[in-house]
């Protein structure tokens, strides 16, 4: 599967996984409705892979016949869930890290220092040169400690992949 273009729709039971995938730069919708058919209709219309812990969805004809691609997430734990998706779909960990808003799933836009002045804390302004803004919620992103912690975790996955000789 061409991992570059893969898009997801995450069921309400795997919300944290959705954020991880967005962090990696994968377009991931989060479905928090109660009617599964809405999620399935969107997945079909937009060619998205369904991520769910719901075995009933996996038993649907659309899934068993392969018309709808779905991954049954087996673990409770978001990091293991991410590992499962990365391995199942052979995703590229170094894809487009931090290019999508974690809240809105919108592609971020680069901003220079002057553009974010007065919109970020003074200590951040002093120490950071690169910023990204979400065009939808206008949240500003920069390479802070949160970012570093997440990069570290992803690098751990990368090392695992290298050990298995995939790169
Ligand atoms: Zn946003």
The small-molecule ligands in this entry are: zinc ion
Could you state the order of secondary-structure elements as H and E? EHEHEHHEHEHHEEH
Helicity, as a percent range: 40-55%
User: Counting H and I runs of at least 4 residues, what is the number of helices?
Assistant: 8
Largest sheet: 4 strands, parallel
Query: Which spans have pLDDT < 50 for at least 5 consecutive residues?
Result: none
- Give the overall pLDDT as a whole number: 89
Termini Cα gap: 16 Å
**Helices and strands: which structural class?**
alpha/beta
Number of strands: 7
* Coarse morphology: globular
Trace the largest sheet across and list its strands: 2-1-3-4
Q: In percent terms, what proportion of residues is strand?
A: 5-15%
What Rg do the Cα atoms give? 17 Å
Question: Could you describe the 3D structure shown?
Answer:
With 167 residues, the protein is an alpha/beta fold. Helices cover 41% and strands 14% of the residues. The protein has helices at residues 15-23, 36-46, 55-58, 61-64, 78-89, 113-116, 122-127, 145-163, and strands at 7-10, 28-30, 48-52, 70-72, 109-111, 131-133, 140-142. A four-stranded parallel beta sheet has the order 2-1-3-4, with helices on both faces. It has a three-stranded antiparallel beta sheet with strand order 5-6-7. The longest helix is centred in the C-terminal third of the chain and has 19 residues, at 145-163. The protein is globular, with a radius of gyration of 17 Å. The mean pLDDT is 89. Bound molecules: zinc ion. Residues 101, 103-104, 106, 134, 136-137, 139 line the site of zinc ion (ZN). Residues 101, 103-104, 106, 134, 136-137, 139 line the site of zinc ion.
């Amino acid at each position: 599967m061409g991992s570059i273009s893969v898009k997801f729709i995450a069921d309400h039971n795997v919300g944290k996984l959705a954020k991880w995938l967005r962090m990696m730069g994968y377009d991931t919708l989060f479905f928090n409705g109660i009617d599964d058919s809405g999620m399935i209709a969107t997945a079909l219309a937009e060619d998205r892979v369904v991520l769910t812990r719901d075995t009933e969805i996996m038993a649907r004809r659309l899934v068993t016949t392969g018309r709808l691609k779905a991954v049954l997430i087996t673990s409770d734990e978001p990091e293991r869930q991410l590992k499962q998706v990365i391995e199942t779909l052979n995703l590229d960990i170094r894809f487009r890290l931090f290019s999508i808003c974690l809240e809105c799933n919108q592609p971020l836009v680069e901003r220079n220092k002057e553009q974010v002045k007065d919109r970020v804390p003074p200590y951040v302004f002093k120490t950071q040169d690169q910023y990204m803004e979400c065009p939808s919620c206008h949240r500003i992103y920069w390479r802070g400690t949160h970012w570093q912690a997440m990069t570290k975790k992803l690098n751990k996955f990368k090392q695992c992949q290298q050990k298995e000789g995939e790169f």
